[in-house]
């Protein structure tokens, strides 16, 4: 252990989202000299939300699911209460209401996935189609989030996965593909089977309450990131906005000594990259140093998905049965969600009219449309779900186009994703697209990888105490038994039978 009388190591963290804020916060608390660089004018970037004409807007609404244990623990540590109660949700198609999801934790707990199967209220999907999912449970057992499992399933599309296990065409069309469109943000033929199994298991199949969700009572920036940044600054961390990193500096020993932002250089004893795929690709494109390394060149093979976020203000109150809703079947390759902000956000709770957020994923075909065309399309589709939207008047609207905004877990992408450590031994990675074995997804995964990066820095310099990351809830006993038996059988037969999927 190094003496704490020595100067604190200088750590540069690039990107002030969940991952970057998490790494910065913990390292600052451990006495490191941490500077967090953010390309946008405020922490969180697009995730945070901002004010437009005196009203809050966001680049999409983000849920916080029951298994987000580390984020919920952070909120308690920050002494903030940013979340709504758990909410029920609906799913709509052009034919009307399709599914109602209860609050699963309030119902008698059954072995997974029996509770999810029995308590989810399908309005139209026949039982025989739902039962066709049973053979898929083998893939759920077989996919244990290990490196080997990812390599087995990642080159296969989700559509191929479901077809191979006998899922009926209707169950795929009316249930699984809608989940993919709003969970992995792409149609099944464009989603990795490995990512599909990881997402479905984490959010839906691992434990009965996992699908339960709460929402932020305002923008994430106002409710979470702003108080978090204050705590970071009180701990000695520094946040510098409007700093777009364009290159990395190495010494003659191959160690990072700083990052370049335009004409300015920020010196460092270690660097943590905490940006999304698109942001990392911009940095690599401007950095001859990173381009010279295969692992970073490989990142250029990864993709990201276009998002369209809209917010509409109506002239009257409209009865929306449940505050969060997912929609499918309106466009073959696009999923969308809509939210009753009067029920979710403090700012709009007493508004005289209805305020709705509608977010579209894999929305590339919509981005070229004018704002007026988009608003008309959104009102038309909302009215298909809830007819009262058709006769209401829109008195204000906000449209945000977000090209390449979210990670695309495409088939075959796993081989190009980076782990937390790199060939530059004092450069670390974090974010929702970084390989880790924790098992979490989305915002929780980003935050967890930020904490993992902080722990790697602490291990490198021998200063401070590593943080304890809350693991995902263990598999239930019958799942553990199934995985144990499957592991044994797979190893007994691996030399006799071909693998389930080609490498």
Automatic annotation (TrEMBL):
Residues 19-458 form the Amine oxidase domain. It comes from the Bacteria. InterPro entries: Amino_oxidase, FAD/NAD-bd_sf, Zeta_carotene_desat/Oxidored. One of its GO terms (molecular function) is oxidoreductase activity. Coiled coil: none annotated. Gene3D superfamilies: FAD/NAD(P)-binding domain. It holds the Pfam family Amino_oxidase. This is Amine oxidase.
């Amino acid at each position: 252990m190094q003496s704490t009388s020595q100067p604190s190591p200088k750590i540069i963290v690039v990107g002030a989202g969940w991952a970057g804020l998490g790494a910065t916060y913990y390292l600052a608390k451990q006495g490191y000299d941490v500077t967090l660089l953010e390309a946008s004018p405020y922490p969180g970037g697009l995730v945070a939300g901002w004010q437009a004409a005196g009203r809050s807007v966001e680049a999409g609404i983000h849920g916080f699911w029951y298994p987000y244990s580390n984020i919920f623990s952070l909120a308690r540590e920050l002494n903030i209460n940013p979340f709504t109660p758990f909410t029920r949700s609906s799913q709509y198609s052009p034919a009307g209401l399709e599914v109602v999801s209860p609050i699963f934790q309030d119902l008698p707990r059954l072995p997974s996935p029996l509770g999810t199967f029995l308590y989810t209220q399908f309005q139209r999907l026949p039982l025989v189609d739902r039962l066709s999912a049973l053979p898929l449970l083998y893939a759920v057992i077989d996919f244990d989030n290990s490196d080997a499992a990812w390599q087995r399933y990642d080159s296969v599309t989700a559509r191929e996965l479901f077809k191979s296990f006998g899922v009926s065409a209707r169950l795929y069309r009316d249930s699984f593909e809608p989940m993919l469109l709003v969970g992995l943000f792409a149609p099944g033929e464009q989603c990795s089977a490995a990512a599909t199994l990881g997402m479905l298991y984490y959010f839906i199949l691992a434990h009965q309450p996992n699908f339960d969700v709460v929402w932020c009572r305002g923008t994430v920036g106002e409710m979470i990131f702003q108080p978090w940044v204050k705590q970071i600054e009180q701990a000695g961390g520094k946040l510098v906005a409007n700093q777009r990193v364009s290159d990395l500096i190495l010494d003659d020993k191959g160690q990072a000594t700083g990052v370049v932002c335009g004409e300015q250089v920020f010196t460092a004893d270690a660097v943590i990259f905490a940006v999304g795929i698109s942001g990392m690709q911009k940095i690599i494109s401007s950095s001859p140093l990173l381009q010279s390394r295969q692992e970073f060149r490989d990142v250029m093979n990864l993709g990201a998905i276009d998002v369209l976020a809209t917010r509409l203000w109506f002239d009257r109150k409209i009865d929306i049965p449940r505050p969060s809703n997912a929609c499918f079947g309106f466009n073959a390759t696009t999923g969308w969600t809509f939210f009753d902000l009067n029920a979710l956000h403090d700012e709009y709770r007493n508004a005289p009219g209805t305020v709705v957020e509608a977010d579209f994923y894999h929305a590339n075909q919509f981005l070229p449309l004018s704002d007026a065309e988009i608003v008309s399309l959104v009102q038309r589709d909302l009215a298909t779900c809830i007819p009262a939207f058709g006769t209401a008047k829109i008195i204000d609207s906000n449209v945000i186009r977000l090209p390449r905004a979210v990670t695309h877990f495409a088939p075959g992408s796993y081989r190009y994703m980076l782990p937390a450590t790199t060939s530059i031994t004092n450069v670390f990675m974090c974010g929702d697209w970084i390989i880790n074995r924790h098992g979490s997804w989305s915002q929780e995964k980003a935050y967890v990888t930020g904490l993992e990066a902080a722990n790697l820095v602490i291990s490198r310099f021998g200063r401070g105490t590593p943080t304890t990351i809350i693991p995902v809830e263990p598999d239930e006993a019958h799942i553990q038994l199934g995985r144990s038996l499957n592991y044994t059988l797979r190893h007994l037969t691996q030399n006799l039978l071909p693998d389930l999927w080609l490498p």
